[in-house]
Specification:
The structure holds two protein chains of two kinds. Chain A is built from ten helices and no strands. Chain A is elongated. The two termini of chain A are about 30 Å apart. By secondary structure, chain A is mainly α. In chain A, helix 3 runs parallel beside helix 6 and helix 6 runs antiparallel to helix 8. Chain A has one domain: MetI-like (MetI-like fold, Orthogonal Bundle), CATH 1.10.3720.10. In chain B, strand 1 and strand 2 form a beta hairpin. In chain B, strands 1-2 form a two-stranded antiparallel ribbon. The radius of gyration of chain B is 24 Å and the shape is flat. By secondary structure, chain B is mostly helical. In chain B, helix 5 crosses helix 12 and helix 10 runs antiparallel to helix 12. The chains are: A mainly alpha, B mainly alpha. At the A-B interface, helix 4, helix 5, helix 8 and helix 10 of A face helix 1, helix 6, helix 7, helix 8 and helix 10 of B.
């Protein structure tokens, strides 16, 4: 769907058929650090830091209450246009609320929902992936079939029908968003677990009597962290886009709580007269999403240098 | 090869069946009375009629078997809101969606493969970096917002293209561009990755060593070889293409099945929702199956891997 970045794995290993995608964890941990300075990592890190700063401090800094309705100053233009003033740097929306304040507080809403969705997806995906990859056999077949069933639904369609059945609440939204993301973790973790299952050091660990839970949790778990981290960074970006889309369709974050999607939805009819209201929240989306996408790419290059080529 | 195709087809049928069961059960297992959600102001008697009409009063497995039986005969139920058969509703919308999706796919493929190839040829140089930047930027733009920006620039300001409805090819351009953007990034990056690989192959070096021009080698030797792996990427992207069509149709008011399902969801028109959901999931699985099979036909290594 919209801006959903390609499955990372299909890019990493574009020549593999869809059902056999894999991200290989780098075995050579020092290879990525030979470059003296990785500008991609620095720039994307800085962008994410800016996003984090706005998310944490933003709501305290903005001069206006994002929900304060002032019907005398409806649809005021931003400061750089005729009639704009520093009182409302980005102008006001259709009912006179300060646009800057609404966009800034939406950072917190969007990021919290996206991060919670990713954490939930990681938990589901890691469990399914480890069980599937390490046990193999019938458990693997069934779990991968479930993963394929999940992937067969176009996410927007699934999300829209699910959300229409219940009252849109943040908790429901988080669960629905996690549905979009968990299959990727299941597949990535499964392929790592499969590789590790037959590795000599695992056999050796078994031989000296290391219990199964410790093998899974520590030996295999350690190898899962880098690829999961890369996918998670990009997934935060994906889920931010999906959340804004669902809010745009009226099924995500509900007004008056500001989210980028619902600001755009509320103002899309003013597109020809007051273009800044529906377009400026999009700039915030693009910056945030771009920062996490770039971070994911840079981490990928850093952790798995072979992919950079 | 035969065994491979059979196994693959059976697996796909299982997936489609599983997806259908999931989509079907979804609206029936959620707490709350679906009949009441569909008609909030109806009397108890009317609710009973709705339940009976839609079969909500019977056990879910029985309902599902009935649904599959009718669906095989081409009867997907009746939409009480549109006063039409669901099959008819879908048949009306599908051409718009297919036209939009295929145009967007073609557009994304042409631009994506071209830019990806250029990036690979100029690997790690300025042009490569610039193209990759465009890709990541395109990937970071939500389609619904990008569509609005296109409308603002090309409809409102310049007046070049209409932004609403569908009355001819001119109406297709902005929606198709919007939908293509979300695919473009993936295609650029995949093309580049595969192309870099192919260009490092012995046969490419051999062709160059024989004195063939770079251009000839790229067009005659390299590009045909990247199309097969790209096929798989396109298959995976198809899900996003269908999902994206819903969004794009909503923004540009194209009367395809995406807009149909969105309206159906808002009206709680469950027969339409379940039929379109199953159709989209089934279509996605089917196309990926075809891609996997043709991929296996072209590359024996995958065939062996999958029949194992």
């Amino acid at each position: 769907m919209s801006g959903r970045p390609e499955s990372l794995a299909s890019v990493v290993d574009a020549s593999a058929p869809a059902s056999h995608v894999a991200i290989e964890a780098s075995s050579d941990k020092t290879a990525g650090r030979k470059q003296s300075r990785d500008w991609g990592l620095i720039i994307s890190g800085a962008m994410v830091a800016i996003v984090a700063l706005i998310t944490i401090a933003g709501p305290w800094i903005v001069p206006h209450d994002p929900n304060y309705i002032d019907s005398r100053s409806r649809l005021m233009p931003p400061v750089w246009m005729d009639g704009g003033s520093w009182d409302h740097p980005l102008g006001t929306d259709g009912v006179g609320r300060d646009l800057l304040a609404r966009i800034v507080v939406a950072f917190r809403t969007s990021l919290l929902i996206a991060i919670a969705g990713v954490l939930l997806a990681v938990s589901i995906g890691v469990v399914i992936g480890i069980v599937s990859g390490f046990l193999g056999g019938i458990a693997d077949t069934v779990l991968m079939a479930i993963t394929d069933i999940q992937l067969s639904f176009p996410f927007v369609v699934l999300a829209v029908s699910l959300l229409s059945l219940t009252r849109p609440r943040p908790s429901v939204l988080i669960v629905v968003l996690s549905l979009a993301a968990w299959p990727m973790y299941a597949r990535v973790v499964r392929s790592v677990a499969q590789q590790e299952r037959g590795a000599d050091y695992i056999i050796a660990a078994r031989a000296i009597g290391v219990p199964q839970w410790r093998i899974l949790g520590y030996y295999v778990g350690r190898n899962i962290v880098p690829p999961v981290f890369i996918v998670a960074s990009i997934d935060i970006a994906t889920l931010i886009v999906l959340e804004s889309l669902l809010s745009f369709l009226g099924l995500g974050v509900q007004p008056p709580t500001a989210s980028w999607g619902n600001i755009i939805a509320e103002s899309k009819n003013y597109l020809s007269s007051s273009w800044w209201v529906p377009t400026l929240p999009g700039v915030a989306i693009v910056f945030t999403v771009l920062s996490f996408n770039l971070l994911g790419d840079s981490l990928h290059r850093y952790i798995d240098p072979r992919s950079a080529r | 090869m035969g065994a491979f195709i059979v196994r693959r087809l059976i697996y796909s049928l299982v997936i489609i069946l599983g997806a259908s069961i999931a989509a079907f059960s979804l609206i029936r297992i959620v707490p709350g009375d679906p009949a009441r959600i569909m008609a909030p102001n109806a009397s108890e008697e009317q609710l009973a009629t709705i339940r009976e009409e839609l079969g909500f009063d019977r056990p879910i497995p029985v309902q599902f078997v009935d649904f599959v039986k009718s669906a095989i005969k081409g009867d997907f139920g009746h939409s009480a809101f549109l006063k039409e058969d669901v099959g008819t509703v879908i048949a009306e919308g599908l051409p718009y969606t297919l036209r939009l999706a295929l145009t967007a796919l073609a557009l994304a493929l042409i631009v994506g493969v071209t830019l990806g190839t250029i990036a690979a040829l100029f690997q790690d140089r300025f042009l490569d970096r610039a193209i990759l930047t465009i890709a990541v930027l395109g990937q970071s733009m939500p389609a619904f917002w990008f569509g609005l920006v296109l409308i603002l620039i090309f409809s409102v300001r310049l007046g070049w293209f209409p932004s609403f409805g569908y009355k001819g090819p001119k109406y297709l351009i902005l929606p198709a561009v919007t939908l293509a953007i979300s695919l473009l990034a993936t295609l650029i990056r995949s093309t580049r990755l595969v192309m870099v690989d192919v260009l490092a192959q012995e046969y490419v070096k051999a062709a160059r060593a024989r004195g063939l021009r770079r251009r000839t080698v790229v067009f005659r030797h390299a590009i045909p070889n990247i199309l097969v792996p790209l096929l798989t990427v396109v298959g995976v992207q198809l899900g996003y293409l269908l999902g994206g069509a819903v969004v794009v149709e909503a923004i540009f008011n194209v009367p395809g099945i995406g807009l149909t399902i969105l309206n159906a969801v808002l009206r709680r028109d469950y027969p339409v929702v379940q039929a379109v959901t199953i159709l989209m999931a089934g279509g996605f699985v089917l196309i990926n199956t075809i891609i996997d099979i043709s991929y296996g036909a072209l590359d024996p290594r995958i065939r062996r891997e999958m029949t194992r």
